[in-house]
Amino acid sequence: MPDFIAEWLNQNEIFTAMTIMEYWDGMVTTVHLVFLSLVIGLLVAVPLAILRTVRNPFVSGPVWLYTYLFRGTPLLIQLYIIYYGLAQIEGIQETFWWEIFREPFYPALLAFTLNTAAYTTEIIRGAIISTPNGEIEAAKAYGMNWFMRMRRIVLPSAARRAVQAYSNEVIFMLHASAIASVVTIVDLTGAARNIYSRFYAPFDAFIFVALCYMALTFILVFAFRKLETHLLKHQRPVNG
Amino acid sequence: MKKMIFAASCALALIAGGAQAQERDLRIAFDVPYEPFEYKDENGELTGFEVELAEAMCEEMNANCEFVIQAWDGMIPGLLARKFDLIMSSMSITPERAERVLFSEPYYNTPGGWFGPESFNSDVTDMDAMEGKTVGVQRGTTMDTYVTENMGGIVNIKRYTTADDMVLDLEGQRLDVVFVDYPVGEQTVLTKEGFKEVGEPVKLGQGVGVAMRQRDTELAEEVNAALRTLKEDGTYDTIMQKYFAYDIKM
């Protein structure tokens, strides 16, 4: 370790090896929570988005209602309802569900997943309905049935159109995960709050955690830029 | 003679007027609800032990006081940013806090109390029995420090911003036991059915003081003088007896 960093670490009271470890554990929790909710959310969102584009209102209606409810209310309220609401259900403490929902991690994961799935559903639906008619007609002319059309034509081109909007959703989700600390999860923000309350140094504690979130965001932006260049290769000029 | 009396009374009125204008404005911050120290009654009026003590103190100091509601997390930053001048919100005197703010002499001290469900029958001082239990505390309180230092790594500590959220999780059985300021636990946990005190109260810290900005040393002297008068002339005891059945005077 360079001397000046060692010296600085020795002089200040806040950034000791112990608090750095707390921040690190918090970062692991944040990444864990956000990653899981995004993956599950995406897996749920793709079929929902397809159902949402179906003409039959009995199929698309419930999906519309779900996305409307979860996009129409704040994530914090959804988290409160799931975290405190589940504990109020009569007799839930005696069922095996309580093993899962006793810990704050799973209620938070459930709230985040439902929330991001609602937004992602709408993003993918937008991409699906903007598929050029000509592509679908051509697929029909080739004799592809609905399933094959979805798999080979609609979803791959929709994925290309959705990736930019989806990268925003991923970054919003990372930032929104800061509210996990209100239900006692020690994520990055929770670690910062604990350290702040121990040393009463809000600037040091929160600026450091802001830098951590920024570093994570940069990684995400970089990864999505790579993904976009890869997916949209066909749109670049030949000699570009 | 009449003229002189008139002139004198004019002068007196001027002096009195001057004194009136000099009456200082003070803003005092509370974090509500923290029963019975500061909370809103059924009419929405701010009341409680510390609120009444603050009112008496302001009268004693001849100050014009305004009460500000501030969440606990932002207390010290709000004081330093001059959003208010005094904190009278059950802030325990600790060395870490004393580096940021100036404390008056302590004006009360209450122990920390252990509260849990009727079914809880472990000894809270027996570390083997407590191992793996989930304990709720309010973040950054002397109770938090006590549990972190004495039981960290043995019990699973959950930290809350407000006592209400913590009690909700105790009722929801997410917590086995809470360690909270005794009067707060008495008002929030013991009033609910199925809960009891599960251990001996623990004396913590150096008591609660009024917090001010470090540079306001003159104000601190006035506050100390006012508090001393209130403690001696019986006003303090009258207010205390309204809220507590036991002695918290310091």
Automatic annotation (TrEMBL), chain A:
Chief subcellular site?
A: membrane
Q: Which PROSITE patterns match?
A: ABC_TM1
Task: Provide a Gene Ontology MF annotation, just one.
Answer: transmembrane transporter activity
Pfam families linked = BPD_transp_1
Q: Enumerate the Gene3D superfamilies for this protein.
A: MetI-like (1.10.3720.10)
Q: Which residues cross the membrane?
A: 31-51, 63-85, 170-193, 205-224
Q: Please report which protein family the annotation says this sequence is part of.
A: Belongs to the binding-protein-dependent transport system permease family. HisMQ subfamily.
**Protein known as:** Arginine ABC transporter permease protein ArtM
What organism does the UniProt record list as the source?
A: Marinobacter flavimaris
Automatic annotation (TrEMBL), chain B:
Q: Where is the Solute-binding protein family 3/N-terminal domain?
A: 25-247
| PROSITE patterns per record | SBP_BACTERIAL_3
Tell me which positions the record assigns to the signal sequence.
1-21
Keyword Signal in annotation: yes
Cellular localisation: Cell envelope
List, alphabetically, the GO terms of the cellular component aspect: cell envelope
Say yes or no: keyword Signal present: yes
Q: Which UniProt keywords apply?
A: Signal
Q: Which PANTHER family match?
A: ARGININE-BINDING EXTRACELLULAR PROTEIN ARTP, MEMBRANE-BOUND LYTIC MUREIN TRANSGLYCOSYLASE F
**Similarity section:** Belongs to the bacterial solute-binding protein 3 family.
The protein's name in its UniProt record: ABC transporter substrate-binding protein
Q: Which organism is it from?
A: Marinobacter flavimaris
